[in-house]
Design a protein that fits this description.
118 residues; 0% strand; little secondary structure
């Protein structure tokens, strides 16, 4: 299994071209995706374990069932992101960043499983 390293900062052309990308079930473990624009991307069931997603735009992205274990999501835009059934165990992400994401059944950074109160 190979590891993908992608430089996708706010100044790179690639960082601007990833919005809406179809990458379901992709192996992006340890990928360098800081500052990437991944809004509306389909990353469902993708392996993003250990990925660097700091300040990435993941707004309205489909991350359902994705493995984000040990990922760095500090400063990421997760507004309207679908994280249902995703694994965020030991991920670096704050409650503030998760406030407007869909989290039903998500394994949270502390290992607990998110369940809505509704």
């Amino acid at each position: 299994m190979s590891t993908v390293f992608i430089l996708a900062d706010e100044h790179s052309a690639l960082g601007k071209l990833l919005a809406g990308v179809e990458a379901s079930s992709a192996n992006l473990s340890y990928a360098k995706l800081g500052f990437a624009r991944l809004s509306q991307a389909n990353l469902s069931s993708a392996n993003l374990s250990g990925a660097n997603l700091i300040y990435a735009d993941l707004s309205h992205a489909n991350l359902s069932g994705a493995n984000l274990r040990d990922a760095s999501l500090n400063g990421a835009n997760l507004e309207g992101a679908y994280l249902t059934g995703a694994n965020l165990k030991n991920a670096k992400v704050s409650d503030y960043e998760l406030r407007s994401a869909f989290l039903e059944g998500t394994i949270m950074p502390d290992g607990s499983k998110y369940r809505s109160l509704n």
